[in-house]
Design brief:
two-stranded antiparallel ribbon, 8-stranded mixed sheet, 2 domains, alpha/beta, Rossmann fold
Length: about 280
């Protein structure tokens, strides 16, 4: 289906009542008259990566809707246009948001339920699926973060980099970690990171989670990389009986690119990788 056709698909923005206020949602619907084949819940990435990824996620959501799926994009508590400040966000609140969104979809959409996560949102999706009260059909992971502590360390390095660019010397490596350990929030690139959220993410590792549903995994592969080796975690899961389908894309790291990348390769790779449930 052409971009013009998918852009005209029904789109319903709304606020979902939730603890601490409301969550901003976008529901992408299949074409009028088309039977719905299932529901897909989108789990966005962390902090500024949410904004960098929003246009690519919207394009993929339209493609899923054109294939007959109802796609729910939700801004988690403290993120985007939802209630709360980022500094008030907590991992368990985000779990509750996903539970609420899945229940909302399940009440309105017949067919299998898919959870699709990007970056740290993929790790959240994995963690959620490991204790989800509703049956899920599959997980779709875009460039998943596999280790929460490494993800937070990488986020904290943004603080060090901005301090160095500003000519500051006060923010030595480990300073932000020490502040978090003392129960003090730290500001990183305009985001106030609460110690409770950082410590919860630190404790999540995909290696300790074994998905009970098929996993569809897409990783960025740069032009200097030849061949797409199977990620060790994907091999680990396969050895333990999980069906893992892996593919790569070469558009670039859209989640932190300074310019908005269209990512046609990612959209095509997703269509090809998920053909067993996307095809008619």
């Amino acid at each position: 289906m052409s971009h013009t056709a998918t852009a005209a698909l029904p789109l319903l923005p709304f606020f979902l009542p939730a603890s601490g206020g409301q969550r901003y949602c976008l529901l992408h619907l299949p074409p009028p008259g088309r039977s719905v084949r299932g529901g897909i819940l989108y789990v966005h990435p962390f902090a500024e990566e949410l904004n960098k990824s929003r246009h690519v996620a919207a394009a993929q959501a339209r493609a899923f809707a054109a294939a007959g799926y109802s796609v729910l994009q939700i801004d988690l508590f403290g993120c985007g246009d939802s209630s709360g400040d980022f500094g008030e966000a907590r991992w368990d609140i985000w779990h509750n948001d996903l539970h609420l969104a899945c229940a909302w979809l399940a009440q309105r959409v017949d067919g299998p339920l898919t959870v699709w996560g990007v970056r740290l949102g993929a790790l959240l999706a994995l963690d959620f699926a490991s204790r989800a009260p509703l049956p899920l059909a599959r997980l779709l992971l875009w460039q998943p973060e596999a280790d929460g502590r490494r993800s937070i360390d990488r986020f904290l390095r943004l603080r060090l980099a901005s301090s160095m660019l500003a000519g500051g010397t006060q923010d030595a490596p480990g300073h932000a970690r020490a502040s978090l350990a003392q129960g003090e929030p730290v500001e990183v690139a305009g985001y106030l990171l609460a110690p409770e959220l950082a410590h919860a993410i630190d404790g999540v590792s995909a290696a300790a989670l074994l998905p009970a549903v098929p996993v569809y995994w897409l990783d960025y592969q740069g032009p200097e990389q030849t061949g797409a080796p199977l990620p060790p975690l994907a091999r680990h899961w396969r050895e333990r009986g999980t069906a893992v389908h892996v593919a790569s894309f070469g558009d670039g790291p859209f989640w932190h690119s300074s310019e908005l990348l269209a990512c046609p390769q990612l959209l095509e790779a997703t269509r090809a990788l998920c053909r067993d449930w996307l095809a008619e």
